[in-house]
Specification:
heterodimer; A: Alpha-Beta Plaits; 22 helices; B: Fumarate Reductase Cytochrome B subunit; 9 helices
């Protein structure tokens, strides 16, 4: 057992209101520089929808992630064997057209326009060339389905759905969508890291944050192709790739990442998971249907004295083990088992989990009767407006069972609360549901509390990073007194 | 006039190579030390990736083979002369070299026109890029011209250019080999020196950081802040 710690995340989709506050918080801090304007380290997609970049989940086109062949896994894009052939031109790399051309507006024209019979307008100006452009796409172009079925119809997750199921998604007055906020998953088996010819990408040993060494990146672009979630971006101006850094300067000082901190719906949870690094390769190799269970089995119980001892032996600080014991992520992922990894079939072992969203309540059934209760208490999950198959493609690796489990438990918790606070459901019914959903009353109460009443401290249990110890090992602080500091002494300017 | 000519030849072929090499080594090392961030191939594939293929692939494969040919002829001139002793083998070598030289030239023209044709690419084109393109055009153009007009270059390179290059390397420059050569060869040599001297100030530095360790490193990279010896950790 080789215990390591990972700062992990849960996004509770049932609470996401799609306000994009997270995206804006991130953009204002990290990606408002030239060359990064088009990047959205955090973005919120409408599902069903084609996402950002367009159809990023279509791995036939982009060749992201890993594929299993003959007992081992290989990168779907460029691996060691193909790097020599593909280094000059990366055949599966998305170009700016797959994202969008960033633009601003020529506001001066509102003041400087010559006198005429028309009201002057602020024309869109490309932030790349400075020329006038015709805006054809942008971030969240298909937000809230964008007024057109075109985007929803082209969602790669619709694969395997019947015509009826597809029609059901967009039926008049039953039209349905939900939000899918995304940041870098800081995977355990990151394809971006494995693909980098320069070895510029790395995973931090202490907290598992995946970063790109800007001084080692040489613009070979392999990471952009290899990341199946398309969360490494190419800075076209500096000629370096960049990605979500999980706001590590904030996390190291005990603050939640900006997107977490600003989340209006309080959907985001952050905490430490301890995992067994020796088993990553074995688990990444499992058959698709066993991946979710295998991924979960990598996460170790921080309350187990054997695990804690092994963690200590590996140099994990007691304070970090303590954080792991209080981790909200551990509860969602391991104890309650209602948080699932996105697209586990890409085999990168993502460490960002999602609680799948409940569909709007199905009130109309059997042509005309309106019933909230039936013999089959979970009828509205099986016949939900969002077909289970669609959610399974996103969060279940194509298999419905894990998604059903998570939805049933959530519904049982809701009905227990209804029995307790509204009273239109009997306690007997609620208990029967809990029983069928594999949930005890205490567990339901804990889920309810962490979902609905959670405080800041409960949502974000950030481990102390002990940078002071790390720095003391590399440099004698006394020797460095009054010096200029570490790291970059010149600005990150583009080369000749 | 004669002495002026001699003086100029001495500067061009006896002194300029050393100047170029000194600038090359000092420039690249200092740039790596002071501005490691600027070591990048500065790929523009993200901004335009259709034409990119037709420029980059022929240019790079072409120039790799052509440069390899120069290095082999420089290191093993006798072996090469012996190989060329057989006419068929000579023809094969010459034709291969010409094909890859032409590939390089076409690739170069393609990248240059791409750079000028697409407005997005123009915004990431620096004056250094244009100068570099010009120098490479002269270099590859004169090379292809030589391959066509002065046949059997693989043999006369081994016989005349290799000894000249060795005399440079051994710090005992003997420019008499060069003086008898046609103008195109002299141009090729002088322009090579200019390119090598200009090298540290261009995107060409990406050649020095080719990612060979990738072929034998482990797929995953882990970096630790604390001393790995303190815990079992390690990468």
């Amino acid at each position: 057992m080789n215990v390591r710690s990972q700062v992990s995340m849960v996004f509770h989709l049932d609470k996401c209101i799609g306000c994009h506050t997270c995206s804006i918080a991130c953009k204002n801090i990290w990606t408002d520089r030239k060359g990064t304007d088009y990047m959205w380290w955090n973005n919120v997609e409408t599902k069903p929808g084609t996402g950002f970049p367009t159809r990023w989940e279509d791995q036939e086109k982009y060749k992201g992630g890993w594929e299993k062949n003959n007992g081992s896994i290989n990168l779907k894009s460029t691996d060691k064997k193909r790097i020599v052939l593909n280094i000059f031109h990366n055949p599966h790399m998305p170009s700016m057209d797959d994202y969008y051309e960033p633009w601003t507006y020529d506001y001066q024209n509102l003041f400087n326009a010559k006198e005429g019979s028309d009201q002057p307008t602020a024309l869109p100006i490309s932030k790349v060339t400075g020329e006038q452009i015709n805006v054809e796409s942008g971030p969240n172009w298909d937000d809230d389905l964008g007024g057109s079925p075109l985007y929803a119809e082209n969602d790669p997750n619709l694969e395997g759905l019947t015509e009826d199921q597809r029609a059901q998604l967009s039926a008049i007055e039953r039209l349905v969508f939900f939000y899918f906020p995304r940041i870098c998953n800081h995977c355990l088996n990151p394809a971006c890291v494995a693909s980098c010819p320069s070895g510029a990408l790395y995973k931090r040993g202490e907290d598992g944050i995946v970063l790109i060494d800007q001084k080692k990146c040489r613009a070979w672009r392999s990471c952009v192709s290899a990341c199946p979630y398309k969360k490494t971006y190419f800075n076209w101006f500096t000629g370096k790739s960049e990605k979500c850094i999980l706001c590590f300067p904030r996390v190291e000082t005990g603050q939640a990442p900006a997107c977490f901190h600003s989340c209006v719906g309080r959907i985001r949870y952050l905490g430490v998971l301890l995992y067994d690094a020796d088993r990553i390769e074995e688990v990444a190799n499992l058959p698709t249907e066993e991946l979710i269970e295998g991924h979960r089995s990598l996460v170790l119980d921080p309350n187990d004295p054997v695990v804690a001892e092994a963690a200590r032996r590996n140099g994990i600080h007691d304070s970090v083990i303590e954080s792991a014991q209080k981790s909200p992520v551990y509860k969602f992922v391991k104890e309650w088992r209602i948080a699932l990894p996105p697209h586990i079939e890409y085999r990168t072992m993502p460490m960002l989990y999602y609680v799948p969203p409940m569909s709007p309540v199905m009130s109309v059934r059997n042509e005309k009767t309106i019933e909230h209760v039936s013999d089959n208490l979970f009828h509205d999950i099986d016949q939900a407006r969002v077909p289970l198959k669609f959610l399974a493609n996103l969060f279940g690796g194509g298999h419905e069972a894990k998604v059903v489990y998570a939805l049933r438990k959530q519904k049982a918790v809701r009905w227990l609360r209804r029995a307790l606070t509204v009273g239109d459901v009997t306690m007997d019914q609620a208990k029967r549901m809990l029983n069928e959903a594999d949930c005890t009353e205490e567990e339901a109460d804990a889920i309810y509390r962490l979902t609905s009443l959670c405080t800041f401290e409960e949502r974000f249990v950030i481990p102390p990073s002990h940078r002071e110890e790390a720095i003391e090992m590399i440099q004698d602080p006394h020797e460095r007194r009054q010096s200029a500091g570490f790291g970059f002494l010149s600005g990150p300017r583009r080369g000749l | 006039m004669d002495s002026a000519q001699q003086y100029l030849d001495q500067i061009l072929f006896g002194v300029a190579p050393y100047l170029a090499l000194i600038i090359f080594f000092l420039g690249t090392i200092q740039r790596y030390r002071a501005q490691a961030f600027t070591y990048s191939s500065l790929s523009s594939q993200f901004l335009e990736n259709q034409r990119h293929f037709w420029g980059m692939v022929p240019l790079h494969y072409g120039i790799l083979v052509v440069l390899l040919g120069h290095v082999v002829a420089f290191l093993f001139p006798r072996t090469l002369l012996a190989w060329n002793g057989h006419p068929v083998r000579l023809y094969i070598l010459e034709i291969t070299a010409l094909i890859f030289g032409l590939l390089t030239l076409l690739g170069l023209l393609s990248t240059l026109t791409r750079r000028l044709a697409f407005s997005k690419i123009r915004t990431v084109t620096t004056p250094a890029d244009l100068v570099l393109h010009l120098m490479l055009l002269v270099q590859v153009g004169s090379g292809v011209y030589l391959a066509v007009m002065h046949s059997w270059g693989s043999s006369w390179f081994a016989a005349s250019a290799a000894p000249y290059l060795w005399s440079i390397i051994t710090l005992d420059p003997d420019i008499s080999y060069v003086l008898a050569m046609p103008f195109a060869v002299k141009l090729h040599i002088v322009n090579a020196c200019i390119t090598i001297g200009f090298f540290p100030f261009t995107r060409l530095v990406h050649v020095l950081v080719i990612p060979n360790p990738y072929l034998w490193r482990k797929p995953q990279v882990v970096r630790w802040n604390r001393d790995p010896a303190a815990g079992r950790g390690g990468s």
